[in-house]
Amino acid sequence: MILSRTDKERKLPSLSLIRWLVIITGFILFLLVSFVLYIRSADSGHRHAEKKAYQIAQNQGGLKEVNKASIHTWDETVWVVRGEDSEGNEWLVWEREQELVKRKVSENVSEEQMLDMFARENAGRIALRILPGWFQGQPVWEIRSRNEPRDGHQLIEFYSFENGTKLRTYWLAS
């Protein structure tokens, strides 16, 4: 069989470098958008609950401005919202399932005061985090700490929000 001139010069279609770059860029963009949508949907329940906690603190707790909300789970799950009233006083609001508990920070032990008390009473230990929480039916500060030098053990301690009294210590195994 004799090939015609056009069959002989016919090439398979190929993609140029620019087309490959467009395809690769489009695919990477698709992956990024998919990842962002996945992350947004994964934490949407938490963000919705946080927004609801803000609204409850403002509507029922009397806060004009909300600065921060955190969830605390131990005996029960509570949202703790930090904010200010119309007079500029700082408050913490514990949103329990049955009730709302509101405490003025200036009339109780503040976060800074609690950390100072902890440092004085626990030489050689480093506070890793401090969270307002709910323990044994009352507002508390939860402090997670570790010994220095590291021995592999961490502790979780609960202190009264009202006066800084230590309520309980839990040792965590390494």
Mean pLDDT rating: 89
Largest sheet: 4 strands, antiparallel
* Percent of residues in beta strands: 35-45%
Number of helices: 4
What's the total count of β strands? 8
The low-confidence runs, each spanning 5 or more residues with pLDDT under 50, are: none
Distance between the termini: 80 Å
User: Which strand order spans the largest sheet, edge to edge or round the barrel?
Assistant: 1-2-3-4
What features would you describe in this structure?
By secondary structure, this protein is an alpha+beta fold. It has 4 helices and 8 strands. The strands form 2 sheets. It has a 4-stranded antiparallel beta sheet, covered by helices on one side. A 4-stranded antiparallel beta sheet has the order 5-6-7-8, with helices on one face. The termini are far apart.
Please name the defining characteristics of this protein.
alpha+beta; four-stranded antiparallel beta sheet; 33% helix; 36% strand
SSE layout and pairings?
Layout: H1 5-9, H2 17-42, H3 44-59, E1 65-73, E2 77-84, E3 90-95, E4 100-104, H4 111-121, E5 125-135, E6 138-147, E7 154-160, E8 166-172
Antiparallel strand pairs: 1-2, 2-3, 3-4, 5-6, 6-7, 7-8
Nutshell version of this structure?
The protein is of the alpha+beta class and 174 residues long. It has four helices and eight strands, in the order αααββββαββββ.
